[in-house]
Amino acid sequence: MDERRGRLTRDGIRIHEPEDFEGMRRAGRVVAEILDRIGAHVVPGRTTGEIDRTITAMVEEAGAVSATVGYKGYRHASCISVNHVVCHGIPGDKALKEGDILNIDVTVIVDGWYGDSSRMYVAGRPSRKAERLMQVTHDALMRGIEAARPGATFGDIGAAIQAHVEAHRMSVVRDFCGHGLGRVFHAPPNVLHYGRPGTGPRLEEGMFFTIEPMVNLGRPETKVLADDWTAVTRDKSLSAQYEHSVGITATGCEVFTLSPAGRFHPTWT
Ligand code: MF3
Ligand code: CO
Ligand code: CO
Question: Which of 17, 39, 253, 255 is deepest in the core (most CB within 10 A)?
C-alpha cells in the first residue's frame, strides 16, 4: 500500500487516482449496508449501548474494521447522538424513549479505505418539529452534494447548505465540520457547512471528503460535556445530522455511502 500515490494540492488536499474510487466504493457500501440494517434495532426501550454492540457485530461480520474503536481513546463502533446531542454521543445504558431522534454515525476501514456516514433514526414516531428538522438537514446535505463538482469551491458547498438551513429558520453548527478522508480518517480540508460562494479551495477530480452538516432547531452554539466527547446544543434545542462520503469526478461527485436499500432518508417509515 503506497500512502504517497496521487498528489497533494497546495492546500494539502490529496488528489486520488481513478482506481482509488473502487476502494472507497467498497468501504462506503459496507457502512451503508450497516446503516440500512441497524434501523430495525432502533426501537423504544433499546439502549444505545445495545445498538452499538449490534453495529460492532455487523462490522466484524462484514470483514471490516471499526475506525472509531481506539481513535483518540474512543471505545465504540459508533457515535449515537440523541435529541439535543449534536454529535459524538457515546453509546451507553440509557434506553430510547418513544419519539427520540438520533444520529448513528459509523466509520469502517475496508482494505485500508475509510467509509464514513451517518443518518437520523427515530424510536417510534417523530414529532412534527423533529421531522421538519431532519428533513431540512437531509435536504441541506443534498444541496451541498449538488454543489460539489470540479471548479466549484468548498465555500460553494457551505453556502448552499447554510442558505437552505437558514431559509427554514434553523441554524448550522459551526463548531464541527466535514473532512477529507481516503486512506486516513481525517485529512485536509475542513469542510465547513456555512460560508460564502467562491471562497476556499477549489474542488478537483480525485478529492475525497465528507459532507456532514449538523443543524439545530435553536441557536448554533454547542458545548462538550465532561466526558470530553458528547457535544450538545447550549440551548438544549434538538439537533440533527446526515453524513455522506463523496469523491469528486470529472463532471460532479460520486456518493460512496448511498443506501443500497434506498433508506438513507427517511429511515423510520
Ligand atoms: N465519524 C465521525 C466523523 O464524522 C468521527 C467520530 S470520531 C469518534 O468524523 F471517535 F468520536 F468516534
Ligand atoms: Co465524518
Ligand atoms: Co462520521
Answer: 253
